[in-house]
Amino acid sequence: MLRSPRFLSSAPATTPALQAGLEASWRRCQHDYNLDPATPALPDMLSGAELRQCCQQMGRMLHFAGPEMDRVHAAVEPVGYTVMLSSAGGVVVAHRTGADMQRGCRRWQLWPGALWHERSAGTNGIGTCLAEHRGVSVHRNQHWRSRLHGLSCIAMPVYDAAGRLAGAINASTFRSVGDSTNGMLIATCLLQAARQIEQACFMDRYRNHTIMILGMAEGPSVPMLALDPERRVVGATHAARQHMGIAPAQDVSLCLLNDTSPPTTPLRDAQIMAIDTALASARGKVAVAARMLGISRSTLHRKIRSLTGAPATKRA
What is the CATH number of domain 5-204? Predict the structure, then answer.
């Protein structure tokens, strides 16, 4: 059992967290946070001044998140969901909801100022997403606190231009939803929205730089690099930093096609991806790809040979 004996009276007969991949969250609720699942109170609400401070800390991300929240809300409102954006601390800083759901959203604290951090609210979409840096779905009795068993929540992490976890975008409902297909479609909408928000923030911060996308995104972050006029990497998204072994918010200043890079480092894989991306964009023309990368054709030929062992003509 995940819950201690004093909690057994309010524990469900089965353990829904085990089927949903939420067992780590339930353990944190019990052992780290010492949360009683029977606590009747809803999540705390911040004061107006505290909420304004949180919004200010979000910076321009709030501006870029607006259109994406509108788009997601247009898709999920017909099936009874509201959309929220939280800060990295779990505070709801913006929301989109239909007029017929406003009263219910206020009653359930699905509203700006609500604090959905896992440490205080237990297992929930926003809080667990932020705690585990991944997309999560928490349906009804998968919530740790029994007071929240009327909710269904799906959330995706959102990263800023420096690769830091900046918050979560969430879709929640207090209405009965039984179709798992809707949940998958909503998760896809949130995933795309998280990527678009990050991309907009990154391109805004590096608006005067060359932006390079390193392959396809596999999660909520798009692997992107910002290059200065000398083609040095000066910025990287969360996914790109993970690939190259660079910590979030760490200053980036490196030559993407540096001949001295050890062949076993993550940077080598990034170099291969950058060359493949440039060649694909140039439709296989080495001279055009070299110009895109800011290097000479002979340098690109040499890099292709050193990185892949293949003759450049086969990559052209």
Answer: 3.30.450.40
